[in-house]
From TrEMBL:
It holds the Pfam family PTR2. The keyword Transmembrane applies. This is Uncharacterized protein. It is found in: Membrane. GO terms for molecular function: transmembrane transporter activity. Keywords: Membrane, Transmembrane, Transmembrane helix. One of its GO terms (cellular component) is membrane. InterPro entries: MFS_trans_sf, POT_fam. It comes from Zingiber officinale (Ginger). It is a multi-pass membrane protein. The chain crosses the membrane at residues 124-149, 169-190, 211-230, 236-254, 350-367, 387-407, 427-447, 467-489, 510-530, 557-579.
Amino acid sequence: MDFHVNASGPVVFWSWPYDLSNGTLPKGGEVISGRITERVVTGDQMKENNSNAVADAVDYKGLPADKSRTGGWVPAALILGIEVCERLSTMGIAVNLVTYLGGTMHVASAEAANMVTDFMGTSFLLSLLGGFLADSFLGRFLTIAIFALLQSLVSCEKANGLQMGLLYLSLYIIALGTGGLKSSVSGFGTDQFDDKDPREKSQMAFFFNRFFFFISIGTLFAVTVLVYIQDNVSRSWAYGICCIAMLLAVLVFLSGTRRYRYKQSSGSPIVHILQVIVAAVRKRKLALPSDVQFMFDNFPENSKIQHTDQFRFLDKAAIIVDGESKCADDDPWKLCPVTRIEEVKMMIRLLPIWATTIMFWTIYAQMITFSVEQATTMQRSIGSFQIPAGSLTVFFVGAILITLAVYDRVIMPLMKKQLGKQGFTNLQRIGIGLALSSIGMVAAALAEMKRLSVAKETVLLHGGATVPISVFFLIPQFLLVGAGEAFIYTGQLDFFIRESPKGMKTMSTGLFLTTLSLGFFLSTFLVSVVKSMTGGGEGGRQGWLGDDINHGRLDCFYGFLAVLSALNLAAFVVCAAWTKPQSSKGEEKLSEIDP
């Protein structure tokens, strides 16, 4: 960058780039990153711009983001809008898919449940792909725009019994769109708040709860209005609404382009992780220095992460041998900075919590599969109105919304006033969610025992299509697991974003979403194993998960899940005790949100 200084006049900057390692800016100057610019800035304007500038963020022109013109709740609301419509689209299809597969396409009960969980599992698994593309190539803004448009183009496809191939194609293109969206939406939303500003940091503390609250609104609309339209009007109309909603959401999202704050990608986190591992393996025979000061670290002082003693093997990647530069990493596959190594350690520390939260989403999967099938066999009338089976999940979504509202408006303010805290920690919220899901499975097992006893006395003995027991017996399991999701989803999202390194926020969000994916896949696996081990036999016994749940023992399956969930909760408590927040040098804290 060439510059001209006039003591009594303005400072003028021309032509990017400028190598800061070989020169300095004049006093009062500023760096304008990544664009060719020509600007005239007075001294007073410079002070004002510096006070309004957001660290590590730029506007849509690539200039330093002005706090007064970018970010905040308005852009965050536009981002929330596209997530609401994504929930509307995905859940509008998924929550009633099991009844469509069973009633229209005559798929067996367990197989229909597995098709739904495979679809949902793939949706969240593909968030890793979306996170990789966002971190490495596209950035969060383009990733959201592209995958939202992709999802909107296929939501209006309709498949009937003769179009199974088209059904699979449509579902998995939607899954691709969902994966790309979810990996970036929450991170891009937090980009709109400056955690160095106390006021905006306080706003960010409420973002995760409100983020989940609004996407639950989308789910609520899906399980009520859309499910009713699917069952009583036309599935084509329902899917058409999903398509139009996604297209409108894309337009609304793009309308905020000038207001968003953008954070530049620092390269592929997967490559960075591999570089550290490869460099450590290459130097595995070397002895570690007695002092960390003798190890390589070329990060700026305010960006360095404090060295930790965990996973010492990885530290060998920072050992400087003869012929290697002490100023720059010419070959990152042989020599990695200490800060880069600590970033990898941070990701490793996420894994125990990651593993112990998978089980919750296996429990969740039952709410949109077997619990919906239970509802189809029970009395669902209120006067002359017949409640669609898929709409029973309104109690599940209602529990989420009520829990979030009470937590946001009552618990958080009360804890801040009495204890000086912003609410439960992210790990505490996860633990509460896991505990509620375990209790929810116990409630589900008891409700199914009651349903089966009535079915044996009526339907199986005298015939008939409906078990004479109210569908409202299922409400406790929906309420408990729904409240659990309100705690665990916000806790997980908060944990994975806060505790991950700066350049790996989108990837860590994708890692969080894989817990949902693996939870659905684990459900598929457990259903297949249980059906195989308990099905068949003499006397026409169908096992726990028979094609007709009135002849099965779904209560035993729920009880099995309750035991697994309780064991998983114990494992989580151990892992949470092992997980400790790490602080870095200077002002930066690893526990801070800085996506």
